[in-house]
Design goal:
Layout lengths: L3 H10 L9 H19 L30 H6 L4 E2 L2 E2 L7
Antiparallel strand pairs: 1-2
Helix pairs in contact: 1-2
Length: 94
């Protein structure tokens, strides 16, 4: 069970602002979610095929045609530095 102190700590780490009057409700909701996850982890799923979607449907896809003009060469003429079609940027992590 998550306490309200733990919920506040998690919110702080996630950079989420939770108003004090809502902390108990968040704790209750998170505990319910964790209880459901515990229940689900106890289910025997051996032999059950993973699904991408609960409905047995296929995604309608459009034909893959190029519809835009390639402006890369033009756009790269105004970039400060490029090489072999790539943008060169300053190193920011040592």
């Amino acid at each position: 069970m998550l306490s309200t102190v733990e919920v506040k700590k998690i919110a702080h780490l996630a950079r989420l602002g939770i108003e004090e009057q809502n902390v108990d409700a968040y704790a209750n909701d998170l505990n319910n979610i964790l209880a459901l996850m515990t229940q689900m982890s106890e289910l025997n799923t051996k032999g059950i095929k993973p699904m991408a979607h609960p409905m047995d449907q296929v995604q309608r896809l459009r034909m893959d045609f190029v519809t835009e003009t390639n402006f890369r060469d033009y756009v790269q003429t105004i970039a400060p530095q490029t090489e072999d079609g790539l943008y060169l940027v300053p190193k920011v992590i040592g």
